[in-house]
Amino acid sequence: MEYIRKGRSKNTLEFEVKLIIKNFSHIGSSKKEARENSTKAIHSYKQQKKVLTAALDFIRFAKEKHQIKTLENLNNSIYKSYIGEQSKKGLKNGSIVDLETCLQLFQFALTRNYKNRGKTKPIFFYGRLVKKEKSTVVDRSISYEDYILIRDTVSKRVSLAVFLMFEFGLRLKEVSNIKVKHFDLKNNQIYIPAGEGAGVTKGGRYRVIPLESDKDIKLILNIADKAENDKVIEISYETIRKSVRNAYNKARISSCDKGCHRFRHSFARNRFKMYLSRINEPINHINDLLTKLDFEMKNSNSRYFYCKEGGLIQIVQLANKVLDELGHTKSEPLEKSIRRDLYLVYLAGTKL
Fold first, then answer.
1. How far apart are the C-alpha atoms of 108 and 122, rounded to whole Å?
2. Distance between CA 339 and CA 11 in Å, rounded?
3. Are 150 and 253 in contact (CB under 8 A)?
4. 119-128, 130-139, 271-280, 290-299: which has the minimum mean pLDDT?
5. Which of 17, 54, 100, 184 has the fewest CB atoms lying closer than 10 Å?
6. 48 phi, psi to nearest 5 deg
7. Strand 189-192 to 183-184 pairing
8. Cα–Cα distance, 125 to 69 (Å, whole number)
9. Phi and psi at residue 266, in whole multiples of 5°?
10. pLDDT at residue number 92
């Protein structure tokens, strides 16, 4: 634990904030274990940067508008004033929700830091001022025909990246960081063990994705002559992102959503359909169960949906299997439960 040295610099508060957030960051450690132990922390560099940016902007506002001298001067009135100022600037509700999430994490970091130092903690965050609006369920998947159009329009390296996102649900940054050793072709799977995910997967999480494909992965990825620690594709994620966006325009695919995440949504729905097709039940019966599950999910407000009906349990288990392959490891111990928000985002509306 690093502590703050007293000084006269006008940037002392900013430096103190940076150090507090640095000490609060557990990058590379398991987010799942932290959640199970009720331990709050920052688990990725991206999240760390967002929290730091929000916290520094908040502190500068508090210094300029409310003349605070130390972090102990922070209070809920200053916080309300700051959020109100962001709203006046035209910041949309969704952006304010994200901002409040970052400042909530800053409050957790501040509380832990002052507790460790045996000092009275300053409290500015008593709860969200802006609630997240319920979004309409939208199928963001891309058709196989459009996927082929995009893959054939981009360069060979970007084409391989698109292949990995569509066929195996890898995130954009995962595609640019995944290594040859993560392709366990003997067991026909992508395998990133716990402790080796830092810098590859989101939050450094472990990942297991069965390679349920009739394609020759070694030949397609051209990894036969590469060393284990070599990246599968030497390319930056920004290059992939820009190339895919340009490919939408070149291939004249009409869509407002030109992001790479659409390939991941396609993987989720295609994999879910594949698992559902293996259920030894009439298709009409399976579709009726899916319709019922969608209805119950949309009309629930809890984080987890707990399945009580026998017919739905198998559907929920298969959905959980897909979410696990996407890298959303299930933290709930009950086999009959599922993260409601993830189901609605990736799988709602699926039919055979």
1. 11
2. 43
3. yes
4. 130-139
5. 184
6. -60, -45
7. antiparallel
8. 19
9. -65, -45
10. 85
